[in-house]
Amino acid sequence: MSLAVGFVKFVSKLMLRNIFLTLVCGENRFVEVEGRITALISTKCQFTMESILGPASSDTPLWLSSLNSEYSMDLKTLTTYDQDAEHYAQEWESQPAGDDLRETVKKFFTQGPTIDVGCGSGRDAAWLCANGYPTLGVDASVGLLSQAHALHPELILVHSALPELPGIEEHHYENVLCETVIMHLPVDLIESSVHKLLMLLKSQGILYLSWRVTEHQDRRDEKGRLYASFDERIVINGLVGAQLLMDEKVVSQSSGKIIRRIVVRKD
């Protein structure tokens, strides 16, 4: 069977909700519908798609369900990431590894399906995959997904965004990582976004959530990226029913910025 024919049959199987496929071919592909990239798939991945993504749960095919969604990241921030994706990816990849994040993951995460929401350059998702946490990378920026694909071709990457994360299975993941993302959202969407992250988890699953702390009022950097200032109670309200395992304000070893980090276990 030729690669082209095999790929067409592969997409057809997705549309029929039969996504239990082991990726073995050694190629990387965009899943594209009507000119829009919806997913980047690495066929080098050692895990099955179903183990990472979960089974399709509606009549809308999993990979297509994000196409008609209105993404809710601040538009100026998203545009900046799309336009300067290579610059940001190189910046993040060159930062110190962030041993504080990795030690926290090792302490609290359990090996099993994991999702990195706001995966950026894919550095953290790649580390997770290499350390026994089969990880799906999700980002609202197609530009950043393209960079992540180039830098870490072993990853499975999906184009979706908070607060709805269309196309992403709920109650499926052992671990959710959302590292310094929610401060790019309008304040009125943060609580629902945090709750959505919690809904991705299986019972007893672990959420690691962090955000860059901005005091007093919202601000934008020189490139226009939004850093929202918000009351921490907004986040706590989104985590109702979860068990708090860690809560600290620290200087990130990777970025050098002050961040708030919370780890919770879903009941």
Count of alpha/pi helices:
9
- Read across the widest sheet, the strand sequence of neighbours is 1-2-5-4-3-6-7-11-10
Question: Which consecutive residue ranges, at least 5 long each, have pLDDT under 50?
Answer: 1-49, 56-69
In whole angstroms, the N-to-C terminal distance is 47 Å
Range of strand content: 25-35%
Oligomer: single chain
How many E-type strands?
Answer: 11
Characterize this entry briefly.
It contains nine helices and eleven strands.
Descriptive notes:
Helices cover 31% and strands 25% of the residues. The chain contains nine helices and eleven strands. The protein has helices spanning 3-15, 49-53, 75-83, 85-94, 99-108, 123-130, 142-151, 190-199, 232-238; strands spanning 28-33, 36-42, 114-117, 135-139, 156-159, 173-178, 201-212, 219-220, 226-227, 242-251, 258-266. A nine-stranded mixed β-sheet has the order 1-2-5-4-3-6-7-11-10. A two-stranded antiparallel ribbon has the order 8-9.
Which structural traits does this protein have?
267 residues; two-stranded antiparallel sheet; disordered N terminus; nine-stranded mixed sheet; alpha/beta
Secondary structure blueprint with pairings:
Layout: H1 3-15, E1 28-33, E2 36-42, H2 49-53, H3 75-83, H4 85-94, H5 99-108, E3 114-117, H6 123-130, E4 135-139, H7 142-151, E5 156-159, E6 173-178, H8 190-199, E7 201-212, E8 219-220, E9 226-227, H9 232-238, E10 242-251, E11 258-266
Parallel strand pairs: 3-4, 3-6, 4-5, 6-7
Antiparallel strand pairs: 1-2, 2-5, 7-11, 8-9, 10-11
Helix pairs in contact: 4-7, 8-9
